[in-house]
Amino acid sequence: MGILCETEWRGCGDSRLVYVARKKTGMFLLMRMNTYSYAQVTCYNIFRTGYRSHVIGALPSCWHNHFMTPDKSFQVHRDGSGFDCPLGVDTLSVTFVRDDVVRVRIIRPGTNGPEASWAVLPSEHIVAQANVAEFKDSILAVTPEGGVSVDIRNDTFSVLSAHGDGLMTNVTVTREGESTTITWNCPPDRRVYGCGEKTGGMDRRGRRMVMWNKDKFEYGEHEEPIYYCIPFCVSLDGGQAHGLFVDNTWKQIWEPGDSGSTQASVTLCGGDVDFYVFTAPDVKTILNRFTELTGRQPLPPLWSLGYHQSRYSYYPESEVRSIAEEFRKRRYPCDVIHLDIHYMDAYKDFTWDPVRFPNPPKLLSDLNDIGIRSVIILDPGIKVEKGYSAYESLFESGCFARNPDGTPFVGEVWPGPSIFPDVTDGKCRSWWGDQMKVLDEIGAGGWWLDLTEPEVFLYDNHTMPDDVVFPGEDSPRTHAQVHNIYGMQLARATYEGALRHRPEERPFVLFRSGYAGAQRYGATWTGDNAASWEHYRLSIRMVLGLGLSGQAFSGPDIGGFAGDPSPELLTRWLQVGALMPFCRVHNAIPTPDGSIETENTNPQEPWAHGEPYDTYNRTAIERRYRLLPYLYTVFEENSRTGAPVIRPFLMEYQDDPRAVTVEDTFLIGRDLLVAPIVEEGAVSRTLYLPRGFWRDYETGELIEGGRDITISAELDQLPMLVRAGAIIPTQEPVQHTGEIGRQRIIWRAYLDNEQYAKGELYEDDGISFGYRSCDCLRTTLRSGSDGTFARIVEGAYISPRPPDFVQIIGD
Ligand code: MIG
After folding, report:
1. Residue 340 Cβ < 6 Å to ligand 1
2. Minimum-distance ligand 1 atom for the alpha carbon of 379
3. Nearest to residue 375, comparing CAs of 364, 387, 388, 361?
4. 721: which strand partners?
5. Distance (Å, whole) CA 352 – CA 521
6. How many angstroms from the chain centroid is the CA of residue 203?
7. What is the DSSP letter of 342?
8. Buried b / exposed e along 62-98 (16+ C-beta atoms within 10 A)
9. Helix axes 567-577, 613-641, angle to 10 degrees
10. Would you call the peptide bond into 225 cis, given omega within 30 degrees of 0 as the criterion?
């Protein structure tokens, strides 16, 4: 009879009914031999008043032969969260982080196993209790709520969901030199989403994905990899979802297998096996759990949700001023102008070119006066130059990347030969924060980090050699190990530095590459895309994919970085881009210094093509500002739950086989559907509308879903629909977010068939952390039976807005 932590085994004589009782927690498992080949496992939680039961899994019936004869060694974790047991020569360590999240580590003999995670937050509080049962040649562990179970055989194991579905079955681990491959069975019809910033289609089956952050100017539609890899995916089997996060910073190769194959694998090019399986059956809960582990996007400053204008580069100062003035003169909303590398003196971080920018504090404060913040670019490389204070202080600290022989690693980037801060070291991160002071003091609004892969010119692979050493805080690591977290750690240094200088303000940090968890330091953009219809369509899939990977605050260079968009393309792209989480127009110019990569581009400011595009583009940007109350409410939800800001249908309709294939239509939050025109010359399109009733955003016309519909949209229009029964908080456009106090909230109510609607609005001061101590306001608006609307208000924030107004859209 098998004995496990205070659990008693009993078996019925005919082996058809077996139960395991755990007296202390009042829980027992019942295994019933249902069919010839499977036993159903039911978990009973016993309460004084009765019991609650649920089926937690199915086991091959061959198990019944083993019930009585266990003979395997395993060790239950002291806190009851899981157990360790042998797996071949290694030790397999299984920890239940939540009832629906299991962590699996493989510890090699004579080692302590995976090193502390860069992604996962310290999480002593996140521990679930496990029940472990031992059989003759396998071990079964389940969480009390039955969310996940792990079944371990001699050298393979399986992770099962609450319903007994095999999420990762027959997992095997093989090694070759430094690399380890994890292989498992993957049902042919499983769909795999996420994995960070990836090109191609949203379903990643059939692909070979390399997790290795890489600079790629004008990347191809199927280029692999690019800037920002996240080794996390969400999978769908029929309507059931589960997630996988492989927490390893080395290069990883993911091969989810094509739809005909039944094998999936992940190869780790170094380090140890440490992964998490998320078994909650719905995509939202999985993202909630993943962002609980790796951190959520902090609520951004409201201004950063406004419109951003950028160019490589606006200079000299007079050009920056004239762009800003143009926005105001033409009455285009704009909150931010970006300063790209030409503001610097010889591309040296934390300096200004004295000729091009003679008086930066005055410039930044004049821009601020008209409601425009400046986001300032920084690159990781610090120019080797005697007398340049950033270089001298970094050199002195010793915290920089080194060659294997200990000499400084010097790489070529914009300023010429440069050294690279070792941001894996906390001392170095605070050094970086110290350097930011000179920019903070003169009024920098936000921070833009480029080349964070880290990119180094002149090497074949555009980065440092693998064996470059980062001395680190606790122990040295090679570039091969820290490459993928370099961008994230630089973002962390910047976020923490900004916070140190202005503890009362939410930082805004924009960075090009990251890793799981980087979302807790800010936003990203999709790098050097191109001015083509393909790239425009791709940008939608990429931003949706990033959201499914935990990074919800992203957007493309609207109009394309390389090349010139046609007027039509810029307008269409702006219409969609203006509704993406991060909204910025940016493009390249030839640099006077003869840039190696950029090509000639024409101006891409939204008025660049004259009328009628000028008016169309203003309308597109104004739409963002109209919807800002709703968008901010969705951002707040994201910061609290991890649910992406813009969502593919599969997030809300994962059980609808058609909805899960849609890649060019999306939802903002739950209720607002955007159906962009994505074909050149088109003025109408067909889309699959998910089930239920919808209403046209403008007219309120009621449309039944669950079928294909065709909508027309001339070049000045963007098709949008609202879920019937929703209320969308909006406002009249403003020139910048500093003006919203003048605008009342206009609730656009879209009644359902029962004449019912409900909506929500989140407000706070948009800049401080006051919301953390309740200085915020959540208003719920509901229609009553008599045609009136009732508000429920929670929170202490006093909104400066004039009284709100409800407008019923449609009949
Ligand atoms: O080698 O800073 O992706 O947004 O304008 C090019 C100049 C360097 C690449 C970035 C782009 C930026 C540009 N940078």
Report:
1. yes
2. 2
3. 364
4. 673, 696
5. 26
6. 16
7. G
8. ebbebbeebebebebbeebbbbbbebeebbbbbbbbb
9. 30
10. yes
Element (H, E) at 166: strand 166-176
Q: Is 344 in the pocket of ligand 1 (CB under 6 A)?
A: no
Work out the pLDDT band at 71, boundaries 50, 70, 90: very low
pTM above threshold 0.85: yes
Catalytic residue status for 528: yes
Question: Do 102 and 159 meet the contact criterion of CB atoms below 8 Å apart?
Answer: yes
Average pLDDT over residues 42-63: 46
Q: Give the position, in ligand 1's atom list, of the atom nearest the Cα of 596.
A: 1
Q: Give φ, ψ of 286 to 5 degrees.
A: -65, -45
Q: Which of 340, 462, 584 to mutate to test the pocket of ligand 1 (most atoms within 8 A of CB)?
A: 340
Question: Residue 583 corresponds to which amino acid?
Answer: C
227 touches 183 (CB < 8 A): no
Beta bridge partners of 107: 91
The one catalytic residue in 218, 340, 453, 671 is: 453
Determine the average pLDDT of the residues in 526-548.
98
**CA 210/CA 226 separation, integer angstroms:** 9
Paired tokens of 339: 């300063």
Q: Nearest 10 degrees: CA dihedral of 60, 65, 68, 73?
A: -60
Half-sphere exposure of 219 (CA within 13 A, CB side): 26
Tell me: pLDDT of 557 over 80.
Answer: yes
CA angle at 132 for the pair 130 and 136, rounded to the nearest 5°: 165
Beta strand segments in 599-641, E: none
Q: Which residues, 6 or more positions from 114, have their beta carbon under 8 angstroms from its beta carbon?
A: 105, 107, 247, 248, 271, 272, 273, 274
Give residue for tokens 């050149």.
Answer: 680
Full 3-state SS string of 417-462: EEECECCCCHHHHHHHHHHHHHHHHCCCCEEEECCCCCCCCCCCCC
Q: What is the structure's pLDDT at 321? A: 98
Q: Using a 6 Å cutoff on CB, does residue 527 contact ligand 1?
A: yes
450 has catalytic annotation? yes
Residues 744 and 794: their CA atoms lie apart, in Å, by: 18
As beta bridge partners, residue 91 has 86, 107
Distance from the CA of 328 to the center of ligand 1, in angstroms? 27
CA of 450 to the centre of ligand 1 (A): 7
- Rounded CA separation 510/522 (Å): 6
Atom of ligand 1 nearest to the CA of 557: 4
Q: Is 637 a catalytic residue?
A: no
* Closest atom of ligand 1 relative to the 595 alpha carbon: 1
Which of 528, 582, 589, 593 has most ligand 1 atoms within 8 Å of CB, for mutation? 528
Q: Is 774 helix (H, G, I), strand (E, B) or coil?
A: coil
Buried b (16+ CB within 10 A) or exposed e, 754-772: eeebebbbbbbbbebbebe
Cβ-contact 17, 32 below 8 angstroms: yes
Q: Are 137 and 153 spatial neighbours (Cβ–Cβ below 8 Å)?
A: yes
Q: Where are the beta strands (DSSP E) in 705-757?
A: 707-712, 720-723, 726-730, 746-750
Burial of 681 (0-12, 13-18, 19+ CB in 10 A): exposed
Three-class DSSP category at 354: coil
Give 482-501 pLDDT, tens digit per residue: 999 999 999 999 999 999 99
DSSP symbol at 303: G
Verify whether ligand 1 is closer than 6 Å to residue 197 (CB atom): no
In whole angstroms, give the CA distance from residue 88 to residue 648: 42
Higher pLDDT, 136 or 438: 438
Q: In sequence order, what are the residues at sequence separation of 6 or more whose Cβ sits closer than 8 angstroms to the Cβ of residue 248?
A: 114, 231, 268, 270, 271, 272, 273, 274
Q: Are 575 and 583 in contact (CB under 8 A)?
A: no
